[in-house]
Amino acid sequence: MGQLMLVGLTTQELEKLVEQLGEPKFRGRQIAMWVYRKGATDFGAMTNLPKELRRRLSDVALINPLEVIDVKVSSDGTVKYLSRLHDGETVECVFIPHDKWETICVSTQVGCPIGCKFCASGESYARNLTAGEIVGQVLISKRRESPNIVFMGMGEPLLNFGNLVKALQLLNHEVGIGARRITVSTVGIVQGIRKLAQLKMQVNLAVSLHAPNDELRQMLIPTKLPPLSELINACWEYFRATKRRISFEYVLLKGINDSAKHAFELARLLKGMPCHVNLIPYNHAVSNFERPAEETVRRFHHVLIEQGISATIRHERGSDICGACGQLRRHHLTPSMSLRNGRHQ
Ligand code: SF4
């Protein structure tokens, strides 16, 4: 049977597994409960399973495909986990505490193939993560029963659509996290947005926009993407299908996309759409860009508000441990990765 990973299997799949091992079906439900709800990390903890079954399971399976190899805690309480996967690749996720809730930022790929110019994750790409490797990140970092989950770590979630959808279903049905607590972020994979809209899953959509026109967007995000007009149409489709307000993420880069003119252009692009804009002053993840002055950030924000666009300036968390947006992966590169910009072949 090889090394099977239990995290990543649905209750029905676990039921089949135990039946193959000659055990009654209900043992599968018990295992799902231990793995997803009680956070068991070893078979010894599964006290309502017969000892013999626990022994046989430990021969053929691992519980979580992630092995945590480093934990960094920021002065603001943010925790970054670095985990090793079965093939030696590594993945990072970030736990962000708030007074009354918590947010977990998960990755969907090892590195990212999109290669946004200002993003450390986009410097390299190795492979997609499996659904189990995605859900495993939540299980190693969650403290509360129902955390907020944001798919804003390494990778473009909609380029890993099948595993993303399975992970969403596992989080929702097995771990018990409400779909409305989950946010899927995308750089603008129009086909993926449309497919996700058709599933009507009620998860939130966050679009990383970063530019109010195609020319500037192409410069910052070199991968060929459908034009902004198509992206905006797909966002409208998503809104109509789910009734969920769309978030737009906009990294403010000094002298590049941070002028009042850009803000007016952005307001025109989003006019009438039920949406919210998160302004993210650049956080020094890659050296070629700079963070705008506070004054510039405030002016940009002010223009959006005046134009009737709901917007906030995002308070940065975890920057001292490199756990803020666009900083994941920065310090952990494995040999199989091919880095862009000629830094590593
Ligand atoms: S910003 Fe997102 S899409 Fe762009 S390279 Fe980074 S992880 Fe990939």
Provide an overview of this structure.
The chain is elongated. The protein contains 10 helices and 14 strands. The protein has 2 domains: about 5-60, Orthogonal Bundle (DNA polymerase, domain 1); about 65-320, Aldolase class I (TIM Barrel). It is α/β, with parallel strands linked by helices. Iron/sulfur cluster binds near residues 115, 208 and 326.
Hetero ligands: iron/sulfur cluster
Beta-strand percentage?
A: 15-25%
Average pLDDT value? 90
Give the overall silhouette.
elongated
Q: Which strands sit side by side, in order, in the main sheet?
A: 3-4-5-6-9-10-11-12-13-14
Number of separate structural domains: 2
CATH superfamily of the largest domain: Aldolase class I
One letter per element, helices H and strands E, the order comes to EHHHEEEEEEEHEHEHEHHEHEHE
Pairing-aware structural class of the strands and helices? alpha/beta
Gyration radius from CA atoms, angstroms: 21 Å
> What summary fits the major beta sheet?
10 strands, mixed
Helix content: 25-40%
Low-confidence stretches: 330-345
Our measurement of the CA-to-CA distance between the termini, rounded to an integer number of angstroms, reads 36 Å
Tally of strands: 14
Task: Give the CATH class of the largest domain.
Answer: Alpha Beta
Q: What is the fold-level CATH name, i.e. the topology of the largest domain? A: TIM Barrel
| Architecture (CATH level 2) name of the largest domain | Alpha-Beta Barrel
Q: Oligomeric state of the chains?
A: single chain
In DSSP terms (H or I, runs of 4 or more residues), the helix count works out at 10
